[in-house]
């Protein structure tokens, strides 16, 4: 980096080139406020994120939780981040390597940047600190090791899986192996859905099932499985990503074993419940973690789980 000459404590800082017109400088800072949990003012650097509009003006992103989310993902080396606005109908991608934000609907790009809040020499001497962003309560939610850090500003985050990664190829193989061999299709994207509320509920339910099995002296194999679920629209996908599968919507595609949400071992069965999203002809399918637990045969009249016999 090159910079103009400036004074440091009254002493001129000059370069080492033949004209002494510039010098190499670099910013030194304390750890980011997202790296250590603290509820009081501290020496941690308060970084803020900005985007440049059409008239070249820099604007700070709204809400503390969104600023925290951006900084946390940047600090943990996440390469891209997808998020939505306007009730999920506008999707944007932030590229932390190129430092740009892309409107995925229009492909419009705008520059982004991060800057620390200014702390003067007098502030340091008088131990004054800039306004701090506190750790969001959502950060206390336990997550799987391979998940990115939680998106604290939105209900869920779609993480596009790397086509060369183990997780992508494992999901793709399970889809291809259980789809009809006569069906020709192309997998466009595979996303991991990260919803802290739903994951927390799932984790708690799993522990309760294990505890009940232990109490009753039963086998503690809870029969946790990866099963497929086909959907008929993008709006349905948004609802599932936000609120989970809703048994109250059952009946549209049949209730052979009673009312409830239906899942399939084989993708070819779930595919039959999908509908092409025109004009793209794209279909949507989930591969969900399901706590099957104990089970018995159902019938169309059931509205709640029957007694296990």
From TrEMBL:
Q: Name one GO cellular component term.
A: nucleus
- Boundaries of every WWE domain copy: 32-114
- The chain's coiled-coil residues are none
What is the protein name given in its UniProt record? Poly [ADP-ribose] polymerase
Q: Which GO terms describe its molecular function?
A: NAD+ poly-ADP-ribosyltransferase activity; NAD+-protein mono-ADP-ribosyltransferase activity
Gene3D superfamilies in the record, alphabetically?
Answer: 3.30.720.50, 3.90.228.10
Q: What is the source species?
A: Mytilus coruscus
Q: Where in the cell is it found?
A: Nucleus
Residues spanning the signal sequence: none
* Keywords carried by this UniProt record: Glycosyltransferase, NAD, Nucleus, Transferase
Which residue ranges does the record assign to the PARP catalytic domain?
145-309
Whether Cell inner membrane counts among this entry's keywords is no
Q: Which family does it belong to?
A: Belongs to the ARTD/PARP family.
Source taxon at top rank: Eukaryota
Kind of enzyme, top EC level? transferase
User: Which PROSITE patterns does the entry link to?
Assistant: PARP_CATALYTIC, WWE
